[in-house]
Amino acid sequence: MTFVETSFIRPKSYSLINNKNNDLKLIIQGQGVFLFENPVNNCCCMFNVYDYKKQNGLRIELNETSVKINRLPEFIPLIDENNNQGLSDKKGAYYWLSVDSQNQRLYVGLGEARIENAIYEYIFSFNNDEERKNIKSFLESLVTICFSENNVFPLQLLRDPIIKKIPLLIKNTQQLRMNHIANYKYLPSSHLSSTAQQLYYSISGKKFILDDKDFPHFSKAIEYSIATPGMWCYERLKAKSTEFDKDKPNILETYLRITLNQNNGESPGIPYVMEIWPVGHFSPIHNHGNAHAIIRVLHGKINVKLFPFLCDEPDTVDPFSEVQFVKNDITWISPTLNQVHQLTNLKTNKNTCVTIQCYMYDEKDKVHYDYFDYLDSKEQKQQYEPDSDMDFIQFKETMKQEWENRPKVINIINKKISLFFGQSKK
């Protein structure tokens, strides 16, 4: 899957419907994904997908308990025996239809358009090659989506259909083996969008490390600063305990944002951010302003929970995936995938986690939403404007000074021990 994925991204205030019939065209005839909302939480959401003549097609209907798809004009039901879910009553919910003529499959899903979030699946069956060709020809003819804005609010069209799980880890194309492609364990770096590739190649190099020749004890200095009262990291984390909820301080719901470079207007906040996660610390559940992002672990481990959508109702939406990334792992965020997550440095880990995260709006994004929406302790949706705790150059120098000026008694004891053992040998 290559991420040349989207025909449009739009806020609700911007209409993409330029004709009176409320018709949309698939980017590629016979395939793609249509994302939509149920605008006023109706008990039913219905639309059709037709061929050019609007004679043959599909009727898609979501109600409160199920998804129903019928083949038109005969109204032949295409039944998924396992489907027991339809429209959601959760705030923030949205839906998608995937049409896949090459593999003769239909999916309907809730939240991010990915196989993990599918609530309906239909695989066309056939008894011989002629039947298969007829089904494929029918699906390949589908091109026009017809709907009423009373119960369908169109959000986005994606070029490629939903086929299988998309890897979270990126592998440099130069390091890929045939088994990697066959098993689809890694996302090749060449499959990232052009925007994401810019970010990936900026931070994926072998010399892009924390403990470099200039300061080989950088990670140790950060650990020391976090653990020691009076040091910069310790005091800054304490001061941020109310950052995400002024009424309910929580020191564990804090992390440090050390920024590199300046905000150039192409990302939510400064595009390059080194984030520092002490053991046991976590972020709120949040999204990323529909931006692209690349995240690399520089030190330690980080646990990531992915959610289908951001819902401001307490504990009502479960994560669809949970994974722990380790040092040098690189993962990704696109405007439509991996957007809503929660990061945690688990209490069972031993070391602080340090990541580098970089962001950039898609070339077609004309909105530039400058905030990360997040859920506070009351599960209410709030806006977070990405800020900076300190510039990277200044931070590195601060850590150097704290490390060099740490209590000399430790050094004196170490020297005495060395002298003692040296004299004993004599």
Automatic annotation (TrEMBL):
Signal peptide extent = none
Q: Which InterPro entries match?
A: CDO_1, RmlC-like_jellyroll, RmlC_Cupin_sf
Taken from the record, one Pfam family name reads CDO_I
Which one of the record's GO molecular function terms can you name? oxidoreductase activity, acting on single donors with incorporation of molecular oxygen, incorporation of two atoms of oxygen
According to its UniProt record, which protein family does this protein belong to? Belongs to the cysteine dioxygenase family.
Q: What is this protein called?
A: Cysteine dioxygenase
Please name the source species: viral metagenome
